[in-house]
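A.,

Following up on our hallway conversation. Structure tokens first:
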């Protein structure tokens, strides 16, 4: 397993990846929801629904959503009737949009949005029944440290559900998605968000991420048990499941 290549949005030598990721999401926060659903053609909602279904057997009371952004995964979690959902993110801009969304949907009594770092979670051990991360782990500065922190805060037999982009292997999805991610996403992302680097970073970070069996091996190394994965939409994304 080769060492993971470090990919940053702006490649500023004076800033850490974490600082750049927070800056990037602050920059695009106002247009993020529109762009996210537009560029995924709405399929991301189906992926989140499938991912949340993996937690249903736990009947979870407390769910943590890491890299919550504007809270779409946290909202999707309401389908399985938790008593408490906490969304945590390093971007104040994304959280501000998310908080407005929760109030508008009248779910702010269940979903709280908190500023925080995935590598130093402000929660006690074994606090959550289940945990979700949607398209966030490839943005971690220290992948293993972040994954270990996630494991720490879920209870024994609890589950972590990680939804992440992957690279399709089969024709024609491989060719179509390759063109789409290399040209379509950066073009529209740049012109709508006005941040050229942010949407060039997306395909670069997907390319650098240790997907599939490599990522499952990292989860196992960190301490997750019964690690499995499920491809969605022909391998455009993968749902990874690990237990404590």
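Then the amino acids I'd put at each of the 244 positions:
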């Amino acid at each position: 397993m080769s060492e993971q290549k470090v990919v940053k949005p702006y490649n500023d030598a004076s800033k850490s990846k974490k600082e750049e990721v927070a800056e990037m999401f602050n920059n695009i926060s106002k247009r993020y929801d529109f762009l996210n659903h537009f560029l995924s053609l709405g399929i991301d909602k189906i992926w989140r629904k499938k991912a949340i279904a993996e937690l249903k057997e736990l009947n979870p009371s407390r769910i943590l959503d890491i890299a919550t952004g504007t809270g779409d995964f946290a909202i999707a979690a309401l389908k399985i009737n938790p008593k408490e959902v906490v969304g945590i993110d390093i971007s104040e801009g994304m959280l501000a949009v998310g908080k407005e969304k929760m109030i508008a949907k009248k779910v702010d009594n269940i979903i709280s949005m908190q500023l925080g770092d995935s590598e130093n979670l402000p929660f006690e051990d074994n606090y959550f029944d289940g945990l979700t991360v949607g398209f966030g782990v490839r943005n971690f500065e220290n992948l293993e440290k972040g994954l270990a922190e996630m494991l720490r805060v879920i209870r024994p037999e609890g589950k972590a559900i990680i939804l992440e982009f992957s690279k399709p292997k089969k024709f024609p999805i491989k060719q179509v998605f390759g063109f789409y991610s290399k040209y379509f996403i950066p073009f529209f992302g740049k012109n709508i968000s006005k941040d050229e680097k942010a949407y060039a970073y997306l395909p670069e970070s997907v390319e650098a991420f240790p997907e599939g069996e490599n990522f499952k091996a990292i989860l196992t190394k960190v301490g997750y048990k019964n690690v499995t994965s499920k491809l969605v939409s022909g391998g455009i994304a993968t749902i990874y499941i690990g237990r404590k």
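The first strand starts at residue 62 and ends at 66. Curious whether your intuition agrees with the design.

B.
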